[in-house]
Write a structure and sequence with these properties.
By secondary structure, the protein is of the alpha+beta class. Helix content is about 15%, strand content about 45%. A hairpin with a 6-residue loop joins strand 12 (about 205-210) and strand 13.
Length: about 270
């Protein structure tokens, strides 16, 4: 019996030692794998897809204008303070845009200045634009881009306001068979009365127009009353209408419209 008890005790000790070695080996392997797969901060930076604003902070560019609101014929003075935060020299292009708030129209497109920057160097870059009378009032965007080897590394924007300039006038010409212009057409019958309407949300317009008949030598002035003029289509062929639309505090507008006159409606067989 004593021998049997000793054997059991030794067996238990052997099992405990084996389990311990297995656990230690597993922990060492796990630690080794974590160490080998862990990325250093430099590795993370190298492997990360870096966006322009991340590699060149907008804090390194200060964009300003001499004031916030501008009137016609005034000059918009733009200043950018740019610092090279890198430990090596850089060659950059600084591109300036002056555009509408929705970026669909540009008043100054792509003015460019070249910079050669030493490490830690700060440089002042200046641009300017004139407020033309035909620039409609409203909010506008100043945009500055810093470009290195065709890559945008920084974009900075600033909003300004334009006031006192002429507003944009929107209007279209309609050719109709009735005075209320409920039925708009582009082809009419000979001797049919044609009503020409200038359709606009702006009232009290000053409208002057001409119509060129199929006989190219015949041009007639149009007399508009309440935005409507009428003619009798006595010639067969193509007609051209040219209308000049004006109103104080608005940009003048020219609109053209073509229509045709035929002798009769062709039969469909």
């Amino acid at each position: 019996m004593p021998n049997k008890k000793i054997f059991i005790i030794l067996s238990i000790l052997l099992i405990v030692v084996s389990v311990t070695f297995i656990a230690v080996d597993f922990m060492n392997k796990e630690k080794t794998e974590k160490t080998s797969t862990a990325e250093t901060p430099i590795q993370k930076l190298e492997e990360k897809e870096i966006k322009p604003q991340e590699i060149f902070s907008i804090k390194e560019v200060i964009l300003s204008t001499d004031k916030q609101t501008y009137n016609p014929n005034e000059e918009i003075k733009i200043t950018a303070i740019i610092k090279n935060p890198f430990p090596e020299a850089k060659k950059w292009q600084v591109v300036y845009y002056f555009m509408s708030e929705d970026e669909k129209s540009f008043s100054a497109l792509g003015q460019v200045k070249e910079l050669e920057m030493k490490p830690g160097q700060t440089e002042k870059v200046e641009f300017s634009s004139k407020v033309e009378q035909n620039l409609s009032p409203g909010d506008y965007k100043i945009k500055l881009k810093v470009i290195e080897q065709d890559q945008e590394i920084c974009i900075k924007t600033k909003m300004i306001k334009i006031q006192g300039t002429d507003k944009i006038l929107s209007a279209e010409i309609q050719t109709c068979e009735d005075i209320n212009c409920q039925t708009e057409k582009s082809v009419f019958l000979q001797n049919e009365t044609i009503y020409l309407k200038v359709n606009s949300e702006v009232s009290d317009l000053d409208i002057n127009g001409t119509i060129k008949y199929p006989n190219q030598n015949e041009i007639q002035n149009l007399n508009f009353e309440n935005n409507i003029a009428q003619i009798s289509a006595n010639q067969i062929g193509s007609y051209k209408i040219v209308v000049n639309i004006k109103k104080d505090a608005y940009q003048s507008l020219i609109r053209q419209k073509d229509f045709a006159v035929i002798k009769e409606i062709p039969e469909i067989k």
